[in-house]
Design brief:
about 150 residues, alpha/beta, 2 domains
């Protein structure tokens, strides 16, 4: 396949298909690619998303309107600081995720895996414990790791 410059490729999205139109000087070439991932049932998508770190699961909201709030329905929440440059950035992200899940309608949480490679701010720890003790959790697994090792494991 030959190289196609970005300027010549126009992405048109349709309901469950994406058509890539390549404009050449002489003709337009059409290729249809079916989006099979979006056609999966929500239960299967949520199972797949439950293996992702919250930073990646959260980013799926830009894929389409169907995916916008799907990350809030994930029964497992994985928050790991290794994807952030500083503990402060991670704390801010974790705080926002927990606040959004508490404030908005979200699925009951079955498992929370929180791994912070650094000092955990007391307000973040308090927010985690408030969230875990809320009515919106049916926690079967809770693991909180800090700089010195395991802080909590249930």
């Amino acid at each position: 396949m030959s190289y196609i410059p970005k300027e010549r490729m126009i992405l048109l999205s349709m309901k469950r298909r994406r058509i890539y139109e390549v404009k050449n000087d002489k003709k337009a070439e059409h290729r249809e690619i079916e989006d099979r991932l979006s056609s999966l049932p929500d239960g299967v998508l949520l199972h797949i998303l439950s293996f992702l770190d919250a930073t990646y699961a959260d980013q799926t909201c830009v894929l389409s309107t169907r995916w916008k709030y799907l990350w809030k329905l994930i029964p497992t929440l994985n928050l790991h600081s290794e994807r952030f440059y500083t503990v402060k950035q991670f704390s801010k992200f974790a705080s926002k995720i927990l606040t959004l899940r508490l404030r908005k309608k979200s699925a009951a949480l079955d498992a929370l895996d929180f791994d912070c490679r650094g000092n955990i701010e007391p307000r973040i720890l308090k927010k985690i414990l408030n969230y875990v003790s809320s009515d919106n959790t049916h926690l079967q697994k809770l693991e909180i790791y800090g700089y010195g090792g395991i802080l909590v494991s249930l």
